[in-house]
Amino acid sequence: MTIAALTPPAPPDTASTRTHRLSTANRDTAAREVRSMVCALLGATGHAGLTESAALCVSEVVGNVHRHTRSPFVHVVVTLAEGYVVIHVHDAEPQKEPWARELTEVRQLADVPVGGYGLCILQQLTDGWGVTRYGGMFPESKAVWFRLDDGGRGAA
Length: 156
Description:
Elements: E1 18-25, H1 30-44, H2 51-68, E2 73-81, E3 84-91, H3 118-125, E4 128-134, E5 141-149
Antiparallel strand pairs: 1-2, 2-3, 3-5, 4-5
Helix pairs in contact: 1-2, 2-3
């Protein structure tokens, strides 16, 4: 029996790849706190053109952790490499499956369902995104991750 798992894009193992980790309590200010730190980090490391897209995407994913999980903490891993950035947002509820509502033509504003469109931001602004569960057959945590390439979809 073979068990396959999808894993996020791994950066090359080079001296130019840097990883930064930050954690905060899962509270209503978490998205703002993480967004500020990630944007400062990107600006200080030569990825300033990605800050707007990173801010939107990080806010959405961290906000989802706050709204849809009881995870006590939000853990964020930012991997900086030449030409791209990968950001993982971890929570402790792997059974909560993130989903993105399809963007379809809506005839009247009253027909627009509330919620479920946030991950469409990732689909539109990133150069790749996904979900990775950690812990084998009985996962203990998950991460929603996304990649932003310098000069890619999310570059200013």
